[in-house]
Amino acid sequence: MARESRRVKIALAGIPNVGKSLIFNRLTGGRAWVGNWPGVTVEKKVGTLRVNGAEIKVVDLPGIYSLTAYSVDELIARNFIVEEKPDVVVCIVSAINLERSLYLALSLLELGVNVIIDLNMVDLAEKEGCRIDYKKLESLIGVPVVPTVATTGQGISRLKEAIVKAIHEKKVQVRIVDYGKIVEEAISKIEEAIKDLAPKLAEKYPARWIALKLLEGDSDIVGKVSKLPAGKEIIDKANQLREVLGKKVGDLESYIVKQRYERVLEIVKAVVEKVAVLRVSMTDLLDSVLTHKIVGIPFALSAIYLLFRFAFEVSAPLADLVDVAINSYLHDLVLGIHGLPDWLSSFLADGVIAGVGAVLVFLPVIAFFFLGFAILEDV
Ligand SMILES: Nc1nc2c(ncn2[C@@H]2O[C@H](COP(=O)(O)OP(=O)(O)OP(=O)(O)O)[C@@H](O)[C@H]2O)c(=O)[nH]1
Ligand SMILES: [Mg+2]
User: Fold this and answer.
1) CATH number of the structural domain 181-270
2) Which residues of 122-152 are buried (b: 16+ CB within 10 A; e: fewer)?
3) How many angstroms separate the alpha carbon of residue 21 from the centre of ligand 2?
4) What is the CATH code of the structural domain delimited by 2-168?
5) Which residue has its alpha carbon closest to ligand 1 atom 6?
6) Which of 15, 20, 22 to mutate to test the pocket of ligand 1 (most atoms within 8 A of CB)?
7) 12: which of 56, 136, 167, 321 lies 20 to 30 Å off by Cα?
8) What pLDDT digit, counting tens, does each position of 26-78 carry?
């Protein structure tokens, strides 16, 4: 009876900046109780999702990258999941940071969580020329995947439906990563010891997860197991195996992280499709018309015509000035010099000055022509 009256509860998990707050608001209508997680000053937000007449408690977990014991936020998230056992954890995955997001998703699955994936920011991924085959992702990790755009609300109603469905159809995928034969054998041995010697612990956590954490040397879990009556036996066994494995694969914690990451990369490679970005700018459009081998001809002829008109018309006052200065003023000045023989003044005025003047008159035209040409070239 008590179990039946227990309020259904879901949690939102995700790496920082994945759109968790926006999704929380979209699910709860933005109304939230805000406080702190017990004993720490990390903000805790709780709201209510109302769907199909049901009221579901929504808890916002801190933004985290994995579920280690190294950070307070990660410990908060995993302790909440283990102690409070939310019916569903919505893991918000960033479509533009799939690797880090999926690392967290796999860590949640290994913890035996009933996960659904909210593949958020699909709009940004598409803009970057990246499409994610979410159906394939779904089949590879064995849990539902719902694409969303938190900023516009796209996909949110399907996310709500998926949450309701997942509450009734628990899917667990603790063996999502294969750690290789020798490590898997060690995991199985520790798992058996846990199930035999600490059955209560195995009810709370998946035994495989505890085994993994003992092999990784997770301080929180080592501490918890040590406190149990049969804890020492389990820890001794794990340490023995750690030592043997350490000689074969090197540092076990790094090895385990690396294997998990390789699985993530395998999944990412299988689901990400790079698509050409169709981003036609105004410049591209104009270029394609203006440089077309047939359509471009009238544009080229018009441009040359305008260039000539620009050169002649803009330079006309300057050319006139040069003409007046040389062909009239200078010409008359030389002719007016007293004492010069007629043949010499005529040679200078009508020959040298008129000749140079005829060329100089064109100088402004040429200068403006090149100016116009330079402008055209830059455009
Ligand atoms: N284009 C686009 N932007 C998004 C989407 N989801 C979130 N954002 C933007 O991403 C930024 C982070 O969103 P938040 O909701 O604050 O993310 P968060 O996970 O709560 O971030 P932290 O609490 O800081 O870790 C904001 O600027 C959002 O507008 C999405 O689907 N599409
Ligand atoms: Mg936030």
Assistant:
1) 1.10.287.1770
2) bbbbbeeebebebeebbebbebbbbbbbbee
3) 4
4) 3.40.50.300
5) 19
6) 22
7) 136
8) 999 988 899 888 888 888 999 999 998 889 999 999 999 999 988 999 999 99
